[in-house]
Structure formats: C-alpha cells, structure tokens
C-alpha cells in the first residue's frame, strides 16, 4: 500500500507540473499581458516599459521556471492589474467556489442516489423512466440557460430567491441546482447499474434466502457496495464542477474563483488566470489521488497495477 | 422500503421548496437609509491615480476632493479645496487653500498634502496610470501653510479642467505610511463619503462624512450609507433593481430602460454623456504600406461612402434611445472648440454606392469591422454597410488586443468610442487622436500642426479658430465617421431624488430620499 | 439475444463494455424496439434536415436587419404575427430564420470539433492500446494531464486572448475534448489486439500499419461512432457556453449560444429571446445523446450503464 501510495503521489506531482506547464504556455502564447497592464491610452513606450519591468520580454521557459519556482513556495506572484498578491485573492474567493462546488455535489447526490436506487429496484417501471428522463435531460440542458430560466422564474417573477451575490445561503440555492444538475446523470447511472449488478449477485441472493428483511439487504449490503464507485466519480465530478463554475458564477454574479477567472480573462490579468488554472488542476489531481487511494484500500487488487 | 425512500425524497423536496418561501426580497433602500447601487466594472484599486475605469472617477468624487470643482451645469470652475486660484503667468498658478478641512482620519488638510500629492502624481517615476492628467505639472511648491504654487512645463489651457476633473488630494502622512498598495484598499480623503468596508470584486461600503466642510460647492451628503456592488451583467442589475435589491443603476440600454420606466416603483432619467461613437479608418494606409494588405480606406471616396452608408440617426434612435444625437465632428458637441459647422455626410445609401463605384468598387468589397463594445450597434453598422455592398465581417476583441492590432497598423476599420475622461475640451479627444501618437491613423501633418498650436495657446479665440480648422479638415477628409453620442439611462427607485449630468459621473452626495 | 452477444463481451477494466458488431438482423431488431434510439434518431434526423434545407425553411434572410421591426414577439403572443412566427430580435432579424440557420452552425461546430478530437484521440488511443508498455504509459499520462486541465476555463482564456472566431473555437475545443476518444479507443484496441486473428496477422509478418488499418480499425468503428455522437453534443454545449460568455463565434453568425447571450440582456422583458434558442439547443443535444446512448444499447443491450 505504501509503495502504491508513493507511486500515485509521484504521478500526481508530475501531472500537476505538466498541467501548470501546458496552461502557462497556452495562455502566454495566446495573449500579451503587457498591453493590458499599461492601461487605456498607453503609448508604445509605456507598453515596452511594462514588458521589461515585469519581465515579459524574456523567454517563456525562463518565465515559467521562475513562476513555478515561486509557486512552490506558495507565492503565486502579484496581479499586475490589481497590485495585490494573487494568493490572497484566491484565498478570498476560494470559499464561495468551494461552497458552491460542495453544495452542488451534495445536491447531485441527494437527487441521484435515491433515484438511482429506486430505478434499480424497479427497473423498467415508470420510476425508472422518470429517473432516466431526469438524467438524460440533465446532460442536454445548458447549465447557464437553466440558471437564466431560474432567475426569470424564481428570482424575478416569484421573488423567492435572491438573484446575485453570495451573502447568505439563499444566494447559493439557484446556482447549486444549476451546477449540480449537470452532474446528476453520471452519478445516477452509476448508482443504478451498480445496484442492478449487486442485487443480481450471489451474496444478495443468499441474504434473501436467509430471510433477511428487504430494507436491511438494500441498505446494508447492496447500497454499500454500489456506492463505492460513486465516491470515486463524485470526487472527479467535484473537480469538473469547480472548473465549470466559471459560467454559473458569471450568471449569478457569485464572487468566486470562476468569476475572478472570468474578469481576469477579460482584463488580461494573466497571472491570476494561471494561478486559478493551477489551483483547479491541483484540486482535481488531489481529489483523484484520494479517490485512487480509497479504491485501492477497498480493492487490494488495484494496488498491484 | 419503497415508501421510506419516497418519504425521504418528499422531505428533501419539501425542505428545498420551503426554504425558498422563506426568502422574502430584501427591500432595503430608504427604510435603512442605505443606497444600494451597482456598477459593472470592478475597480483595480481605490487609488484614483492608479485606476483607469470610469468607476474610479465616480468613487473619487465621493471619497476625495480636488482643488477645483467644475459646476456640472454651468461648467464654471469654483474652488473646492482651494479657496481661490489665480494665474500669475501662463505657466504659474497660485492657489490659496481653505482652512479647517479634515481628512477622514482626523488629520488637517494643509499645503503639504497638496504639494505631496501633486508632485507624486507629476513625477513619472511613480508611474501613475493617469499620466495625462498630471504630466503637464512641472512642480508644485509650498508658499505658505495654506498656499501653493503650481508651475507648468508650458502653457496648458486645460489645466483648470484637469485640476477639477482629476488630481484628488491625498493625506501626505497616511499615504507615505501605507503606500500605494495600502491606500488602494483603504483610502482616506476629505470627501463627502468615507469608505468603511471593501470586499474586492464584490462590494464597497461608504458612509456619510458627517464632518464634511460646510462651504463645499459639492453640497452636504444626505444619504447615510452607500453599498456599491460590482455586477458585470446588465441583466443582473436590471433584475436586482426590479426586485428592490438595488436602488440605482445607470448605462441601462434603452429597451430595458423603457420597460423599467413603466414599473410603478421605478423612475428612469436619460442623460446624454460625453462619450461619442465613431468609426476610424486606416487613412494613412499603414496596413497597405507595412503589411501589404489591400486597403480600400486609403481612398477618400470610400471613407466618404462609409460616412453616407451608416444610418447614425436610426442607431441613435432605436438602439441608444433617449437624447442620443448624431454627431458629424470628431468631438463631443459641448466640448470647447468642437466646431459644428463641418462637412456633414447624411445617410444616403445610393450616394454611398455611387462613391464606391467611382472609387473602383462597383460591387463593394470585403473587409472587417473591429469593435470592442456595444456589439448590437456594431451589428447594425455591418447591416448598413452590407446595403451598399461592403461586406464587413464583425470582429469583437478585448480593448487591449484591439488597440494592439490598431497600433500595429493592421485594423482598417474600427468602431470605437471615446469618453474624453469627461473633460469638456477638444484637447481631450481630437488632440489625443490626431497628433501622430500611436492611435492616430490619419497622420495628417496639417491637422497635427493646427491642433498642437491650439493645445499650447491660452488665447481662447485663437484656440477656437485653430480647432475649427482642424476639425473641418478632419470632416472634409473623412478620417473618421463620427456617429452618435451615448446616453446613459439612469434607472432608480422612486424614493430617490437623483439628478444625472452629461459627464456621466453620478453624484450620490447630492442625492436624497424623498 | 443476450445469449448471442454475451461471449463477445469484454471488460475493459474501465467499466466500459465493449462489444463487437453483432449480426445485422439482431441489430435491426434492437433498433426498432429501442425507444430512446428511435426518438433520438428522429430528433437528430429532423435537425439535420433543418440544417440542410435551411434556405427553404427559413422565411427570411437571417442576417437582414430592420430596426423598425425590432423585438416583435412570437406568434403565440398577442402582438405576434405569422410573418415572424418566432418573432424578431434586437436588430429586427427574423428569429425563426436565425434559429434555422443557427442549427447549421451548431452542427458544423459539433462535427468539426468531434473530427479533430477523434483524430487526436484515435491516434493516441490506438498507439497506446497497440504498443502498450512505455508508449501506453506516456499516452495514459497525457490523458491524465488533459483531464486535470480545467477545459472550460482554458478554452475561454485562450479564445478570449486570441480573439473569438469560428475557426478558433473549433480548433480550441477540438484540441481539448479528445479525452473520451483516447480513453475508450485505448481500451478497445488493447482487447482487439489480444484476439487470435490479430495475433495471427502479426505473426504472418504484416506491417504494423497494415494490422492497425486492416485488422483493428474496422473493429473500432462502433466505439468511435458512439463516442462521436456523445462528443458532438458535448462540443455543441461547450460552444454555446463560450458564445454565451461572448468568447465564442462572432456576430452576426446565428449561433444558438450567441442568441442566448444576445437575448439575455432583454430576457426579463422578452423571455422568448432566451427560451427559444435554449430549447433548440436542448433538443439538439438531447437528440444526440439519446441517439448515442441508444446506439450503445443496441450494440450491447446489457451494457446500459
């Protein structure tokens, strides 16, 4: 197990470094940070001055190594646009995005696990069909559009929910649903197929033959087994949701990482964009690392791979 | 078993729906003596010398005071922190300061603060972002505890404008202690409102400065607290205003403003702003000379054809609305020196087609129209151009990216706007664009010489005559296609007594609850 | 039926069931009885027809503006008129015509992105699956890095910095969504490679290229088509999200995402500007997904997961 853990850890570090490298290069090749920095009405000399001052004139690879070196020490540089340390800015906004991500994931699980279980207990009945319909719709519904429709309906027409901002938990309800719904299908399908498989397995049949009560079988034996892969998928989904929150945060004007990324892109504040990409990548890598370990812990065969 | 799960589902649904019922709309505003407002751009810093957005001007007017004050109605200059001012020569101005004015932290405002702040801004080593506002100052010297002398590099007619429109005075000791960074998140001024809370990217809270000096031409602040939110999307702002979570928004497009005006709790006041929209052509043919691109716009006839093709009145009426009007001169009509008697190109597609044919494009040509804002306006222009045979592809870019393209001489036709930093003088627009700096795409030496001479003259009549000559030539040569003025629809709660002005800088220190 | 394919089923180890083409008759039988497949197929077919016959269906020129007839509501509204069945937009363009032409854009983008993704994914997946060993390790690593890269965020940043246009959007999205192709083709290739006749071909001294092209590729066709349909849906949704944020295709191109974005400022007063393109987008992606899912079910009925 230790060797496996170390191997995975090494891989995680390598992936993080590669992601940071790729994203750094992609973003730097696409845009020139110096122009944005110099501000409206700046002359060519001012732009050149900024370029040299911030070191944007050096080879990209040198800039990357320097940036990565500092990032290792937790120093993500300074936003040239806001003149503030990027790390502090990320810390300020992290909370909102994490709250959104975790609540969206919770929503997705609360919706999908019971539905998946029901669908598995009664396959090919109306409840299975409803579950399927909900899941298929979730995959096809553009989340930003869903968010807008909710704003029109719940925010403006009914006036039940606040439309923008992140002051109270009420502010998170609509974004949570909009973001979480997209993750529902994947989890529900997994629960359903897992349950179907477990329910058809020998040990459930044995349990039933032994005369155990049905709910007990369902919860103690079946669901417990079926939920293991869900943990892994949930971790990955959380990573995706944090990455996808950029659209939802812009719809609901939530002051999180996604929104910060979006405004930073708009004002070519590249150090911030890079830091956010790195942050999300680290979170994703960390989540997959943890879920790998959990899986390996539960299923010893994996450890030898 | 099945019922248990159904129960669970039912309960969780119930909780969700129940929860939403609890959330009654927060109708803040008058009851709490709190004005909730929203702007679309986040301020990069609250230090006025280091931010570039219009929001920075608005913020500065509330938190800081300048030496002078320009009356928004009469455009007359009055003393603000200055008790009086007078020109000693064309390059020297003497200012006597008011006494007894205190900064928000209790410190007295004296000549030291003025000298410190203005010298700081004028020193290029400090790299303030608003160089243009202060680079005309050579030095500011203290001539007494409450008197200063401003020495100019050369005669600069717009000095009063810049002293009233920009250059707020900071507390010397505090600024020296906290530096630009510290000041940017916790600014201190003498203004009618003081900042109490800043959440970057989200909101800024200001409260009334109860010790604001009595004789200020700005008047006395009335509303107790202002919560300033950053909401980038106009539809979010409109929704929040409709549900009562906001009391005031502006720059609302005419369609939404029209609908909001019909709502019982809201009031809409359109106000023309100093921003104008125009199309600029690569008349100097840099795209052709430097990049070998085919450039139809080097031909005067083509530029004139575009001027005739654009239905500015229709765009102004249908898309901008309110008091937006067509402009024909390369400046905002109220600006000093903005000659109105120039060659006018009226909307006339057939004439445009004729001109194109004469220029050798009987079937039009393909090109790209670049823009950085107001996509619907640009789309309408593309539609107008298509009618006369010019097939323009629309390319919307970030402002910075577009400017880079333009300065590299690669953009042949751009839809741009310019707000002149709310400065009521032609030097803030025409001189900015026609004196061979990077953004000058016309490169007309004649125009440059007239403008440059006018800029450094303090003889009013002479300036006027020179600007007139330059603007007439610009129109004659159709270097630009000036189109329309922008209108800001101010939409606010009926409870609010608010008056907008053409400089599009809202003054909440004059606002009251009804 | 189940019997017929059960011995052709392999577990890829990724929870993906991969199956060889079954006899045609069985397939046809399943297709007819699979509701999702039929419904999805019909939806996709209709949308395809709409795209092909756009000039015949659209009552007006989708680009023609007339500011005097701005924002006429759809026909079911009291002020609507049959001249403009779905109303007109902010610039007085016929909404139905834009919608009809918009589906060309969506399909074009969906297909082009999918093609790029398929090429990248197939090359990576095939080489990894065929050669195994170090090559496989490298490719798996690349896939992991790609998954850790927050795709939406990176896409928005790159498109925003370069400047949006259809070409850029297609290229960027195509280069970002090849992961599913690579994962699935890698697994499938691995299994096919182990089959007798492939080994026989190798033993007979056939060149690597010949084995891949003649023996392996034909067997991958099914998996590619299934992933492709799902990826088209994904690409279309991503393009819509990009265009919604103003960073995708440029106006006056009638992209559905762009239509939502343009309509959103007026959505509180003219909700149809947002709902109509949203529903269209939903139906297209739903159709694609149903069709793709159905295709998978039809080729492996027990593999509904």
| CATH topology annotation of chain C | MetI-like fold
Number of strands of chain B: 18
Global structural class of chain C: mainly alpha
> How much helix, percentage-wise, in residues of chain C?
55-70%
Mean pLDDT of chain B: 87
Uncertain regions spanning at least 5 consecutive residues of chain C? 1-12, 301-305
| Number of discrete helical segments of chain B | 17
Instruction: Provide the β-strand percentage band of chain B.
Output: 15-25%
Based on Cα principal axes, name the global outline of chain B.
Answer: globular
Number of helices of chain C: 13
Overall geometry of chain C = elongated
Query: What's the CATH H-level homologous superfamily of chain C?
Result: MetI-like
Structure keywords:
A: mainly alpha; MetI-like fold; 2 strands; B: 514 residues; alpha+beta; D-Maltodextrin-Binding Protein, domain 2; Dipeptide-binding Protein, domain 3; six-stranded mixed sheet; four-stranded mixed sheet; 17 helices; 18 strands; 34% helix; globular
Question: What is the secondary structure topology, with strand pairs?
Answer:
The complex is a heterotrimer of chains A (about 300), B (about 525) and C (about 300).
Chain A: H1 2-30, H2 33-38, H3 44-53, H4 60-72, E1 78-79, E2 84-85, H5 86-121, H6 126-140, H7 143-157, H8 170-199, H9 202-209, H10 214-251, H11 257-266, H12 270-298
Antiparallel strand pairs in A: 1-2
Chain B: H1 2-22, E1 34-39, H2 54-63, E2 68-70, E3 77-79, E4 82-89, E5 92-97, H3 111-122, H4 131-134, E6 137-144, E7 147-152, H5 159-165, H6 172-185, E8 193-199, E9 203-208, E10 225-230, H7 234-242, E11 248-249, H8 254-261, E12 266-281, H9 286-291, H10 300-309, H11 312-320, H12 349-358, E13 365-371, H13 375-387, E14 390-396, H14 399-407, E15 413-418, H15 430-434, H16 445-455, H17 460-477, E16 480-493, E17 496-497, E18 512-513
Parallel strand pairs in B: 1-10, 13-14, 13-15
Antiparallel strand pairs in B: 2-3, 4-5, 5-7, 6-7, 8-9, 9-10, 11-16, 12-15, 12-16, 17-18
Helix pairs in contact in B: 10-12, 16-17
Chain C: H1 2-6, E1 10-11, E2 17-18, H2 24-33, H3 35-52, H4 54-57, H5 95-131, H6 133-148, H7 151-162, H8 166-176, H9 179-193, H10 196-203, H11 208-244, H12 256-264, H13 272-299
Antiparallel strand pairs in C: 1-2
Helix pairs in contact in C: 3-5, 3-13, 5-6, 5-8, 5-9, 5-11, 6-9, 7-8, 8-11, 9-11, 10-11, 11-12, 11-13, 12-13
